[in-house]
Amino acid sequence: EQLSQFGLGNERLLISVYGDIFDVTADGAGGKPTARDELFAGHDITWGLLLGQVTRCRCDKFYDVFKSREALERFAGLCKWLGHYRATFGEPVGRLAVYENEEDLPAPPEAEMEEAACSLM
After folding, report:
1. I need a surface site. Which of 4, 16, 38, 48 has the fewest CB within 10 A?
2. InterPro entries given for it (predicted)?
3. CB-based burial label for 7 (10 Å; 0-12, 13-18, 19+)
4. What is the tens place of the pLDDT at every residue in 41-73?
């Protein structure tokens, strides 16, 4: 809920990737955020990154990826995105509380993963 206050229109733009909150207002070189970062600021984009398709309807979806073999197979890609955000924007400025008890989250919806896999081919 607090993260949503830091979306487009705010002086400070924050994005969450797997619970790590990054300040994407400017990259480490003082550059501007990408259009994607501006569009999805104020949201957790983990689910969309995991599926390879970040869209508004895939923002702020929280799942325990360790409860799904297919999601777990995509986890390396998510780790690459975490590395990208750390390299570009520095260390996280916060952490979403929902990920502190990730094991209590539901399993990812298999149908949505299958649908995303089909559309990427």
Report:
1. 4
2. Cyt_B5-like_heme/steroid_sf (IPR036400)
3. middle
4. 999 999 999 999 999 999 999 999 999 988 888
